[in-house]
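Re: the multi-chain job from yesterday

Posting the exact lines I submitted so nobody has to dig through the queue logs.
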Amino acid sequence: MENEDVAAPIIQAYSRRYQRYSLPAGRAEQLAREVATLNDAVLDLLGELRFEDDPAAFLRVLEAGKETRPKAER
Amino acid sequence: MTAELARLDLVSIASLIRRGKASSAEVVRASLDRIEAWQPHINAFIAVEADAALDEARRCDEETARGICRGPLHGVPLAFKDAFYRRGKICSAGSAILRDRVAGDTATVIDRLERAGMICLGRLGMSEFAADPTGHNAHYGACGNPWNPAYIPGASSSGSGAALGARLVYGSLGSDTGGSIRLPAAACGVVGLMPTHGRVSRHGVIPRAWSLDRPGPMARTARDCAELLGIIAGHDPRDSLTSAEPVPDYRRGLGAGIKGLRIGIPEALGPDVTPEVCNELDRSQAILRSLGAELRPIRVPDALGLFRLNDIILKAEAAAIHGKWLRQRPLDYADYFRVRIEAGLLIPATQYIEALALRGRMLERFLDESLGEVDLLHYPAIPRALPTLAEATLVADDPETLARAASLSTYTRLFNYLGVPAISVPCGFDANGLPVGFQLVARPFGEALLLRAAHAYQQVTDWHLRMPPAPAPETSTIHQGA
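And the result, structure tokens for all chains:
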């Protein structure tokens, strides 16, 4: 059995409870596939993540980035 | 005179009005005449505020006669994507849910433009809640491309791109979460600048995704964008994410040229960038080189990987933003919009946080590996010829249609994730006569450099001066929804 077939009933039940709305046939499987693809994008990069990385690190790099001159000028 | 006024850019028309060489009322009336002629064909406006605009223009002219100038945009007609709050005015975000909702506040950027003297002509069309790159809208009808209304205008700031391309307004604002400024700019033959994350306030702008949204200027020229950015940029106590970085005078250095500037060009682009688009990109690179820029091949990030990281954040935040309405009135959304939001309900919280946590690391790598040896990156805006609105029809139960539409933003979304500024500049036309654009990307807070390079390019090219032919008065090509 494919992963999306396993996930579909859970997604369907969640949607009924959260949105009070039944997903049309095939939509739950479609959503399961989409979320799996997105999750893979993070899983592929998890090796890059260090303990000290938090969401605020982005703002620090952004602020520092304006000061950093291209290598050729350093 | 009407046609001649339409040919002028924002900076030129502002100068004429300020010096009393043209009246604001005359300029506003000319814009309203063009809107009347074009609107049945491209559906750029959700609502036109003709009487209010003319009243305000007359007040501006009275002030001019008394020697009063409100600011650099004194009496100049603009219009905005319907996602920017103006106190007492409806702000629908292109949705049925907010169709009658009156804003109780004014967006910081609108407030700054009003103080600079601009006159608002109305509310421009957009994708429902800024969620689609084609220009379809199930509630207000699709927006058409002024160069051929059968084709998409790019989105989500579709009305902004179309209105500028058709010369209905002199400047506009878009908001960019995955390409929503740069895509319509490229598709309609105008300039669109997505500023650095935190450079421009988001206060009073209906969110698509809090961590990614960036309001920015759209106009006919880089010089116009410099004028608008100088007015709207800067710290805002009502948006805690805005930077305290001082705002430079973006127009001051525009004429300095690009001799010696190092521009990176990707060592390789994906197979989705068509030969036709590659040819236009090559030609624009040759022009930049002829102006004295040094072009160097560089490694660029995995666009699709960063696209997906952007998508995780976008979908998760959008699901949270729309959670209440998804529960209370799910059927008031267009089906194809809701299906995109629904995926966000299912993304694990840890992966959302990891996508955010990876952002600094990915930016660091981009600055080092891609911009480490160069000042700017030259990049595609839209990788292929624009589809027609019919070809880009969105069907919720056909994920292929949604993926195909989303792929228009493959080369824009990564820069939302990375937080860096990027500008889209017109550089030619495809075989169907639709505009093609390229992007330039800079380091954080490098807007002045982007504008200088784009301005230098526009000084020796005329793509931005070309106007689409006037529509035939007896026909209407308005599109009804997706």
